[in-house]
Amino acid sequence: MSDVFEALAAPARRTILDELHDRDGQTLFELCNRLAMKHGVAMSRQAISQHLDVLESAGLITTKREGRYKFHYIDLTPLKSITERWPTQS
Amino acid sequence: MKINLTSVLVDDQNKALAFYTDILGFVKKTEIPMGEFRWLTVVSPEDRNGTELVLEPDAHPAAGPFKSALVEDGIPFTSFAVDDVNEEFERLRAAGVRFTQEPAEMGPVITAVFDDTCGNLIQIASRNSGA
């Protein structure tokens, strides 16, 4: 299980979350293209796949197989631990 | 030298011919019996003397694992040009085609990816006029 803070520390991983927030349920191919074409991220598919593993390990994304395809979904539940730890003062 | 053929590896030539003609709208160009299989090609009705797409049997044992690995990661085997990806997406979706990537702006192009029902994902692309 990786740490949420560590998972969020890498800009590429935050960009992945941005893109999944834009459209949830993407294939690795779509995510790689979005990173390359929209953000100029020059990273191998393998490297992006490893970033996805870190995000999944931190619980920030989940993967779901539908038949022969595999899709990635964002899950912001772990972020609640941050606001619970430091609740906004009112 | 010029490129006159490209191919997709299909699990069933009859099913492939039906999908690539009835659904996608290509037309059959050549069909020549070759033993167990056929030399089977389709072309775009917009360019009947253009590049032919060979609907090639995926009988080689390496083809299956290769195709499955691409599909799992959502990687299209090839890409076709369309005038408007959004229009094609609506037309094909209405025809029951399964998309693994709905239209998305990718810099200078808009792309979408669908399942050809024969073991491949196919990308369609058009210029992104809004970019």
Would you give an account of this structure?
The complex is a heterodimer of chains A (90) and B (131). By secondary structure, chain A is α+β, with helices and mostly antiparallel strands. Chain A contains 5 helices and 2 strands; from the N terminus they run ααααββα. A two-stranded antiparallel sheet of chain A has the order 1-2. In chain A, α2 (11-22) crosses α3 (28-39). Chain A starts with a helix and ends in a 5-residue tail after the last helix. The model of chain A has no long low-confidence stretch (mean pLDDT 93). Chain B has 131 residues and is α/β, with parallel strands linked by helices. Helices cover 24% and strands 40% of the residues of chain B. Chain B has helices at residues 13-23, 63-72, 85-94; strands at 5-10, 27-34, 37-43, 52-57, 78-81, 99-106, 109-115, 121-127. In chain B, a hairpin with a 2-residue loop joins β2 and β3. Chain A binds chain B through residues 23, 26-30, 33-34, 37-38, 45, 68-71, and chain B through 68, 71-76, 100-102, 104-107, 111, 113, 121.
Sum this structure up briefly.
Chain A has helices at residues 4-9, 11-22, 28-39, 45-57, 80-85, and strands at 61-66, 69-74. Chain A has 90 residues and is of the alpha+beta class.
Topology (SSEs and partners):
The complex is a heterodimer of chains A (90) and B (131).
Chain A: H1 4-9, H2 11-22, H3 28-39, H4 45-57, E1 61-66, E2 69-74, H5 80-85
Antiparallel strand pairs in A: 1-2
Chain B: E1 5-10, H1 13-23, E2 27-34, E3 37-43, E4 52-57, H2 63-72, E5 78-81, H3 85-94, E6 99-106, E7 109-115, E8 121-127
Parallel strand pairs in B: 1-4, 5-8
Antiparallel strand pairs in B: 2-3, 3-4, 6-7, 7-8
Chain pair sharing the greatest interface: A-B, 15 and 17 residues
What percent of residues of chain B are in strands?
35-45%
Order of neighbouring strands in the sheet with most strands of chain B: 1-4-3-2
Assembly state: heterodimer
The CATH class designation of chain B is Alpha Beta
